[in-house]
Inverse folding.
């Protein structure tokens, strides 16, 4: 197998990033944010907007975790589709979160520009592109097509743009308001915007968290409020969340550029996901494909804190990659990262100890919900404002 290495990091902007210094002495701030992924950086931005002094810490670099290693999909809504969320949580709650995620795409696009946030829409396909493998795949595609229709009906009922799709990749839905990005570039862009006004430290693993005090090897942070914005492995830092959140490994690979179509068009017009969202792929502007999935085929072994890619899952992704590409692919990078899951698909926003709030558990889709949850965690800690009931607390 290709040695593990994150495909997004080959982007010259990511490769050329300057590292932030680690925390080297004890400091004080109004707010300490632990975790500088997309969620933690949103908490940093919100605290700055409120005129507070902020210290941000990451165990590795900015976006060292899932926020720099994910599919880069900016799909409105939580991990489950709007019609399923409405059935489980009530239409009002599901719609409120859906609309906030749509606003989040717009806010990210305004902040970071079209070079980072590509507003291309997204395609949900029923089943993988190409020939059906067997009768079970055919039956599943029929079920998924019916589910696409339910999703379309619910979106239309609420005036949200959606179109039927039937084309070279198969059948499903096109959602024109969704977007895509290189996730590492999103996080680095936010860190560059907030960095001059906040004190952000890389390579500063937090060893323990108490009310008012965060301990690292080289110094402590004293802060009135501590926001723990860590998705995967949250229960390692805060063991009281064990059972409420569970860490899984999600795996990806990237390829050499795919051959363009006859008029030079990319094979994938926008981010595309299939098989109930288990497999997902996008192409960057250079034509490289970034694809992940297969967790459902290996669910038991993927409940792990380990982030090493495995031959089984990578083999499945390579198979799916050839289906998405319509031809065999040449793999250049393979990687994995941790993500937090919750039993009812509601992300967590909760006060864990007095003055210590945490958010995480985005069930594999935290690029938009994560920042919303992080701001809700801040509002819970600072104002005592209860989060919306689309969050578990
Ligand atoms: C392979 C994969 C594909 C995915 N695809 C998508 C997708 O396409 N769209 C989508 O919306 N979501 C996707 N997700 C989920 C999404 O990546 C995450 O939900 C989201 O990135 C979570 O961001 P975060 O900032 O909350 O947490 P993280 O990205 O996990 O960031 C937490 C940060 O905390 C730091 N940290 C951890 N412990 C400590 C400590 N003790 N001290 C200091 N720092 C610490 C880590 O180094 C890390 O940088 C995917 C996830 C994976 C793994």
């Amino acid at each position: 197998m290709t040695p593990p290495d994150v495909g997004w990091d080959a982007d010259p902007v990511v490769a050329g990033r300057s590292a932030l210094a680690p925390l080297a002495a004890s400091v004080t701030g109004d707010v300490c944010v632990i975790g500088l992924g997309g969620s933690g950086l949103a908490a940093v931005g919100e605290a700055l907007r409120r005129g507070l002094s902020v210290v941000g810490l990451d165990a590795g670099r900015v976006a060292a975790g899932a926020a720099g290693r994910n599919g880069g999909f900016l799909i409105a809504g939580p991990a489950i589709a709007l019609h399923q969320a409405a059935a489980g949580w009530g239409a009002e709650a599901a719609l409120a979160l859906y609309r906030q995620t749509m606003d989040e795409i717009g806010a990210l696009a305004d902040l970071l520009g079209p070079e980072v946030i590509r507003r291309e829409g997204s395609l949900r396909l029923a089943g993988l592109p190409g020939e059906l493998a067997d009768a079970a795949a055919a039956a599943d595609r029929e079920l998924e097509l019916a589910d696409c229709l339910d999703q379309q009906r619910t979106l239309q009922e609420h005036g949200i743009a959606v179109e039927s799709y039937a084309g070279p990749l198969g059948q499903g839905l096109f959602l024109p308001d969704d977007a895509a990005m290189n996730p590492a570039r999103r996080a680095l862009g936010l860190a560059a915007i907030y960095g001059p006004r906040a004190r952000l430290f890389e390579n500063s693993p937090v060893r323990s968290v108490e009310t008012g005090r965060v301990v690292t090897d080289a110094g402590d942070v004293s802060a009135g409020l501590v926001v723990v914005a860590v998705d995967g492995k949250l229960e390692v830092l805060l063991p009281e969340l064990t059972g409420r959140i569970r860490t899984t490994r999600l795996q990806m690979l990237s390829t050499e550029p795919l051959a363009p179509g006859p008029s030079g068009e990319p094979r994938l017009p926008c981010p595309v996901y299939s098989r109930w969202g288990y497999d997902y792929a996008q192409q960057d502007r250079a034509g490289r494909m970034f694809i992940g999935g297969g967790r459902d085929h290996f669910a038991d072994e993927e409940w792990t804190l380990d982030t090493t890619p495995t031959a089984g899952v990578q083999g499945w992704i390579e198979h799916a990659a050839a289906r998405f590409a319509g031809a065999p692919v040449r793999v250049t990078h393979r990687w994995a990262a941790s993500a937090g899951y919750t039993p009812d698909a509601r992300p967590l926003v909760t006060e864990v100890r007095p003055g210590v709030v945490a958010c995480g558990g985005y069930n594999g889709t935290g690029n938009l919900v994560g920042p919303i949850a992080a701001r809700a965690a801040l509002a819970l800690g600072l104002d005592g404002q209860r989060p919306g009931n689309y969050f578990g607390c």
Q: What stands out?
A: The domain at 118-179+249-341 is CATH 3.30.9.10 (D-Amino Acid Oxidase; Chain A, domain 2).
